[in-house]
Amino acid sequence: MQKFIRIRAQPGHRTKGLLLVGGRVLPCALGRSGIGIKRGEGDGITPLGHFPLLLMMLRSERVKLRASNFDWQRITKNDGWCDEAGDRNYNRAIPTSYPKSHEALTRDDHLYDIVIVMDHNITQHMGVGGSAIFFHLAHEDYRPTEGCVAISRDHMLWLLPRIGPETVMIIE
């Protein structure tokens, strides 16, 4: 199992990155503002730093896993993620009935068919340091994310048996 995944911006492309793991280099999408120090909610920055991979969530009606080292939780229509800065549940999983601002994890596109929660602003909560920084699936054209790291479905399925909860994503 890989201990580290490294993420770097492609030279000359701040929103397109390279994911380096086990001798392979895979393309990835980065936040619309590139890699940097998070300033707050909605800044579009993919955060610089070391982030353990905490939890995998899955749209099991859309994805049949061949192999994974993660225990995973099924994403349902009632699952959301709080993005209301200052709320006690900021950057936490919440039900979609939650009255504060949040994002639904069931999307019409396929970006959240596989979601791995990175430990950004979770175990060491920074208040308004950005929410929902995930490792998830990319659009086919690798268009920018809102601050996440995203790869193709095929690459994610290749990667899942090679990483797990002991893996740290290093964004540099």
The residue-averaged pLDDT reads 95
The unreliable regions are: none
**Nearest-angstrom radius of gyration?**
15 Å
Helix share bin: under 10%
Largest sheet data: 9 strands, mixed
Order of helices and strands: EEEEEEEEEEEEEHE
Helices and strands: which structural class? mainly beta
Overview of this structure, please?
The two termini are 21 Å apart. The protein is globular, with a radius of gyration of 15 Å. The protein has 1 helix and 14 strands. It has 172 residues and is mainly beta. The model has no long low-confidence stretch (mean pLDDT 95). Strands 1, 2, 3, 6, 7, 11, 12, 13 and 14 form a 9-stranded mixed beta sheet that branches.
What is the structure about, briefly put?
This protein is mainly β. Helices cover 4% and strands 38% of the residues.
Characteristic terms for this protein:
172 residues; mainly beta; 9-stranded mixed sheet; 3-stranded antiparallel sheet; 1 helix; 14 strands; 38% strand
Topology of this protein?
Layout lengths: L3 E7 L2 E9 L2 E6 L5 E2 L9 E2 L1 E10 L13 E3 L4 E4 L10 E3 L6 E3 L9 E5 L15 E4 L11 E3 L1 H7 L8 E4 L1
Parallel strand pairs: 1-14, 4-5, 6-7, 12-13
Antiparallel strand pairs: 1-2, 2-3, 6-11, 6-14, 8-9, 8-10, 11-12
